[in-house]
Design brief:
Layout: H1 3-6, H2 25-29, H3 35-55, H4 60-77, H5 90-112, H6 122-130, H7 136-163, H8 166-177, H9 182-189, H10 193-218
Length: 224
C-alpha cells in the first residue's frame, strides 16, 4: 500500500521535497536602501550576535550595543564584500566583525574596572592545571558555532512552516520538536500511526535540506 497516497489531501504539502531557496540576501544587502533586505538580515542574525556577546561575558546593554555596532559595520563593508571560498565564508566574515566589537567592549570594561583581584584559590589553580579551560577565542568560536546552527535551524523552521500543510507541520512539531510519542500524536491529530511516521520523516528530511540550503545561500555571492 502506498502510504503517501493514503494521506489526507490537506496533509500532503505542494512541492515540499523541492523547497526552493530565495534570491541571495547578500546581493540585496549591497543596496543600503533595501530596507526590507536589511530587516531580514537583522531579524535573522541579531539574536546570534547578541547571544554570543552575552556568552563572552558582556552585559545585556553592551550586548545590544554589539548588535547595533556589528550591523553598522556590515553595512559599511557590504558593498565591497565578495564571497571567496579561499578566504572564508560569510559566516566567518561576520564572526570576525562581531569578535572585534565584542573585544572592544571587553577592553573598555577591563579598563574601567576598579575591582582589586582576589587572592588566588590554590584549589581552583590545581583544577585549572588538571583541566585547563579553553582560551577566550576558542570559547567564542564554540559559542558562535552553536548559535549559528541555532540561527539556521530557526530560519529553516520558519521556511518549512510556510511551505508545509498545517497538519504536516504539527506532526513534526509534536514528534520532533516537543518529543511526543508517535502514538500519542496520532491520537491527538486523528491520524494513523503510519501517517504520522511518514509526515515526520518527510518534514525532517525537508528540514535538513532547508538548513543546508540556507547555509549555502549565505555562503554564496549573488555575483558569482
Amino acid at each position: 500500500m502506498n502510504l503517501e497516497m493514503s494521506l489526507p489531501l490537506d496533509l500532503v504539502p505542494a512541492d515540499v521535497d523541492s523547497l526552493p531557496t530565495r534570491s541571495s540576501l547578500l546581493g540585496r544587502l549591497r543596496n543600503l536602501g533595501d530596507d526590507a533586505g536589511w530587516r531580514v538580515f537583522f531579524d535573522t542574525y541579531w539574536r546570534l550576535i547578541y547571544n554570543v556577546a552575552r556568552k563572552a561575558g558582556l552585559t545585556d546593554a553592551d550586548a545590544q550595543d554589539v548588535v547595533q555596532e556589528t550591523v553598522i559595520a556590515v553595512a559599511r563593508r557590504m558593498p565591497e564584500f565578495r564571497y571567496d571560498p579561499a578566504k572564508g565564508s560569510f559566516k566567518q566574515w561576520l564572526l570576525v566583525i562581531t569578535r572585534r566589537r565584542i573585544q572592544d567592549h571587553l577592553r573598555r570594561a577591563y579598563r574601567s574596572s576598579c575591582l582589586v583581584p582576589l587572592t588566588a584559590d590554590p584549589t581552583l589553580e590545581l583544577e585549572n592545571a588538571v583541566s585547563p579551560q579553553p582560551s577566550p577565542d576558542a570559547q567564542l568560536d564554540a559559542a558562535w558555532e552553536w548559535e549559528w546552527r541555532e540561527t539556521l535551524r530557526s530560519a529553516a523552521l520558519a521556511r518549512i512552516r510556510q511551505r508545509c500543510a498545517p497538519k504536516h507541520y504539527q506532526v513534526f512539531d509534536y514528534c520532533v520538536l516537543q518529543g511526543f510519542p508517535s502514538a500519542k500524536v496520532a491520537g491527538m491529530l486523528g491520524l494513523s500511526l503510519a501517517q504520522v511516521y511518514l509526515a515526520k520523516h518527510r518534514v525532517s528530511r525537508t528540514m535538513k535540506r532547508a538548513v543546508a540550503d540556507l547555509e549555502a545561500e549565505m555562503n554564496r555571492s549573488s555575483g558569482s
